[in-house]
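pinning this so it doesn't scroll away 📌
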Amino acid sequence: MGGDVTDAMDINNHGIVVGRSATPDFDQHAFAWKKGVMKDLLVPSSMANAINSVGQIVGDAQFQAAISAFLWDRGAVTFLGSFGGQDTHAFDINDSGEVVGSSDLPNSVGDSHAYLWKNRVMTDLNDRVSPNSGWILYSATAINETGVIAGTGRNPQGKVHAFLLKPQQ
């Protein structure tokens, strides 16, 4: 895109690579690269973090001081919303279009909760674990085709630890 830095973040089963690339004016834009051709997703100050086999792409875009998660689908951009805090990130998407990430809580600095965005609704994954478990789920970083979610949280002993959340039957 004319700048001197490009980062690849993910690749799907069709060989389409997504990431971010610098522009000559020192901005960065999310891109999709296929068969040697880089396509600008036309979202300013953005990066693409993941792509599914359908070609849907998720990423983050900065607007003023806030970061917003987005879904790019055949040229249309949908912003995923937030839990009311400053920043929201989208880290992964499965072939069903389910997105996972993290969203800051209102009136907090860096206090985020993991989410699942499904059917255009953002759900706090902490609502899917027992309040008595002692876990706080901070960030969901991956989701597979069966809906199993991996991420990072704080366990009952107060340690930052990986988690695996399986969908309820």
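📌 and the second one:
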Amino acid sequence: MKNLEKKKKIDWKKTIKNNGYMLGFITKVCPGVLIIGIIVTIFSAANSFLLNTYLYQYTLNALQEGKALKTIITNLVFLFIFSISVKFFRNIYNYYRTLKSPKIEAYIQKKLQKKAAEVELACFENASFYDTYVKATAETTNRAFDVMDTMFDIIWTIIMIIATGTLLFTIDPIFLIFAFIPLICTIIVDKKRNRIQYDYHMKTQEMARQRDYVRRTFYLNEFSKEMRLTQMWKVMFKRMHNSIAEMKKIVDQYGYKLMFFAYLFDFVFDIVVDIGSTILASYKTLVAKNMLLGDCFVVLNSLAYLSYCVNGLGTTTFKLDEHSLYIDNLRNFLEYKVKIPEIETAPVVPHFQTLELCNLRFRYSEKNDDTLKHVSFNVKAGEKIAIVGHNGAGKTTLIKLILRLYDPTEGEILLNGKNIKNYRLSSYRNLFGTVFQDYQLFAASIAENVMLRGNITEKDREIVKDSLAKTGIYPKISTLANGIDSVVTKEFDDKGVMFSGGEAQKISIARIFAGNSEIVIMDEPTSALDPIAEQEMYSNMFEACKGKTVIFISHRLSSAAMADKVYLFENGEIVEQGTHHELLARNQKYANMWHKQADTYMDEEDITA
């Protein structure tokens, strides 16, 4: 996989290109926010110059030169009308931008989420890629507006520099020297400072992710029991302590450098610019008497501001470089070439007939050993297939390959005799209804959790109730105030419902009953149920799945007795296959596992009797 964390040297061409890429999000959704913003910025800069600089020079010089009071007042009235108009339209623009911001944010988030849905599962199981994804999503929306505001700042600053610089030049060109001293300082050190700031932010963000994980373990319900009944809270406290200690090291590493840059800029502004220009302007006005009072006021009032603007132009321009560093994370994520892509022109999947696994070999990375080796078997429409074996035998990995969450390292999977890579990905996956061992219930209504979508119709509601009844959980849900409309978890609703592990698993299994998939895949779907409840659940599932193809993983071999074929996995290979009775008759590994489990169940019955 491409190393998405690799840092490259940023040149100005790439910097401009990256920032333009970010502005493209805004212009694609609402170009008016950018275009009108530029116009408002131009007039606002002109207004700021006229009101804060030219106004004082004109008034003081006009009074000193004895111009007519009526003329002075008339010009000031026009100036104030212009100023009020600009501020009025700026407020209108701010309101317009506020209205459009959610639309822009939704577009950006949708683009990120769409890409996240396309990216293969392997990426999210890769720590490096996941860190890049977190960094890309952490501030993407704000970064888009930050880039636009930076561009507005550059436009504003350029106008102020031209207007104020021209005015100072007409007074005395020597004062412009003071204004450009900070720019030289900026050019020399600002890019270095931005790089240090970026490195600091990236390293602290990694520590913050660890810190936030620890925080979640203390307030999320899924961790609450272990955190109270075990010593795991000490482990989390230690991890929190370590992350804070690492954060302190990072601050120690970069803090003094950043402090030095801040002091350097303060020294240049306060000592060189402010004091130096004040001495020169005072001398020309009070001693040499070759400068008008209004001009002196403009110099004292505007030179420091012009100096800040000149320096700000350098700083703001280098801000584009800082944006570019963050945008790189976003572009690397959005431009990542998906290895299992959705090809819209590929054919849709026809009616399912056969699924054939041909000599599959798979490893998660080159550093790992093979998880699956030489796996081959056929599944015909309507068959019930059991995959059994100890933990780590490769059973769940096999399911991931069948669902095409991964592609095999070697071998191929054929659907109706055709490689599954040749079908449209979404169409192929729509064949399957799945329940995983690590299922998830969402902070949504029970009905939405069963149907796995919104816009629940009356017909859907009946399907949900029937599906929940088949899992045995509906009697409890029917007693809830909001029934199937009750929200799962209390994360966003104080009246939300909390379910036990077994109850939550029954809701997840209800998805199978509610679905209309041709192939049902279940990975330890009843792991949280007792043997009797499990047997009843499997009976209901097989009854509901008549005519459908079922592939299920189970540790308890009692459920395998219901299957048409059983495949026993060990160390990534099929070591036995056949019907339940055939495997018992062979009296090998499967039979040995069966008898051990049967003895356990008999002991449990003796204890409870």
